[in-house]
Amino acid sequence: MIQTDVVIIGTGAAGLTAAIYCARANMSPIVLEGHEPGGQLTTTTDVENFPGFPEGISGPLLMEHMKNQAMRFGAKLIPTMAINAKLSSRPFVVDLENGEQIKAQTVIISTGASAKYLGLAHEKELIGKGVSACATCDGFFYKGKIVHVAGGGDTAIEEATFLARFASKVYLIHRRDKLRASKPMQERIFNNPKVEIIWNTIIKELKFDDQGLNGLLVENTQTHETTLRKTDGFFLGIGHQPNTAFLNHQITLNPQGFIVTQNGPETNIPGVFAAGDVQDPYYRQAISAAGSGCMSAIKAERFLEEHGRI
Ligand code: NDP
Questions:
Q1: Which of 38, 54, 197, 310 has a Cα at 20 to 30 A from 82?
Q2: Strands 82-86 and 92-96
Q3: Cβ(182) – ligand 1 distance below 6 Å
Q4: Separation of CA 116 and ligand 1 centre (Å)
Q5: What is the CATH number that goes with domain 2-114+240-307?
Q6: CATH code given to domain 117-236
Q7: 137 catalytic, yes or no?
Q8: In CATH terms, are 2-114+240-307 and 117-236 the same topology?
Q9: What's CA 167's distance to the chain center, in Å?
Q10: Is the CB of 77 inside a 6 Å radius of any atom of ligand 1?
């Protein structure tokens, strides 16, 4: 059994910032990298709004820098997932996918949020065969092709805009007649000649053959008319689900499944803190995730000072 002052679960901007602060505070953090080391920023291209990079920086490079910075101060990164956590008493015990266990005085949960899917038949098995939730990962494969994107928020607009760099035509399918996305993002899409919005439309079925996805059966919500739309690719842009399943409802979640925090990163369990998108349905920015990671580290350190080690 590994013993530590603090285990940090997740290595997005929140987890790695927490790791930097905990390591510099001599807490020897154990950091669980998860299935997507570096988090959502590893699936973006240029990050132009992270302070300190006037020319912008690529998401993966930014995360690489954060990881190296955390390791320089002694954070220990383990390439595994937390599959269960016993949080009813301290020291907390976290079960790892690799079979090991960690006994920790404090826990920082920074597991982020994962892309949502529509729940259509064959949707998951067609991932990589025409279905994707990451334009920046897969957009390149759709050079000169026709793609459809589902959603009407900033994620969908970002995906559609990115795909328009490669695809011959991008159709954005939205279930309403108004976009949820912010005004500047909306302008971006309205001004892109390669993107066309299909309003008031839902996707009913995915059509495919041995080669993968080739069409979408869609329905107009006003007329209830169904249409078969040919497509080479289909991208989900309908939001994200916080990654909290391994907690087994031991921590208070809001109705959307985000961890409820107070006084910054405090959860309902003293000594367990949450940072980043797993507790933030609102800002969801790299810089706000990093900021909450910093707060969770400082809180964990002060918790240990006040409550001691058990
Ligand atoms: P949102 O929840 O904002 O938007 C989700 C979109 O998907 C909505 O338009 C919603 O439709 C639609 N949708 C949800 N479920 C379904 C479904 N089952 N079927 C069809 N459509 C569905 O999520 P985002 O990920 O877009 O954004 C989340 C947050 O992250 C926001 O605060 C956003 O501003 C931020 N963000 C910022 C970015 C940036 O600034 N560059 C980039 C990406 C995200 P409806 O509108 O009808 O509810």
A1: 310
A2: antiparallel
A3: yes
A4: 10
A5: 3.50.50.60
A6: 3.50.50.60
A7: yes
A8: yes
A9: 25
A10: no
Domain ranges for the chain, please list them.
2-114+240-307, 117-236
Task: Kindly tell me the burial class for residue 26, based on how many C-beta atoms sit within 10 Å of its own C-beta (0-12, 13-18, 19 or more).
Answer: exposed
Residue 35 backbone phi and psi in degrees, to 5: -80, -20
Out of 134, 232, 277, 294, which one is annotated catalytic?
A: 134
Q: What six digits make up the tokens of 107?
A: 């826990």
Task: Tell me the per-residue pLDDT of 185-197, one tens digit each, with 9 for 90 and over.
Answer: 999 999 999 999 9
Closest to 59 measured CA to CA, from 36, 76, 75, 82: 36
pTM summary value: 0.77
Question: Average model confidence (pLDDT) for the chain?
Answer: 94
Structure-block tokens of residue 146: 């026709």
Backbone torsions φ then ψ of 140, nearest 5 degrees: -55, -30
pLDDT digits 0-9 by tens, 56-110: 999 899 999 999 999 999 999 999 999 999 999 999 999 999 999 999 999 999 9
Rounded-to-integer distance, Cα 168 and Cα 278, Å = 36
Look at ligand 1, atom 46, and give the residue with the nearest C-alpha: 180
The first and second tokens of residue 214, run together, are: 């080739």
Angstrom distance (rounded) from CA 201 to CA 106: 47
Q: Is the CB of 204 under 6 A from ligand 1?
A: no
Annotation says 177 is catalytic: no
Identified catalytic residue from 5, 138, 154, 232: 138
CA–CA–CA angle 162, 286, 271 (5° rounding): 145
Dihedral angle, C-alpha 250, 255, 261, 267, nearest 10 °: -10
Residue in this structure with the two tokens 């760099």, named with its chain if needed = 165
Interatomic CA distance for residues 227 and 217, integer angstroms: 6
How does DSSP classify residue 42?
G
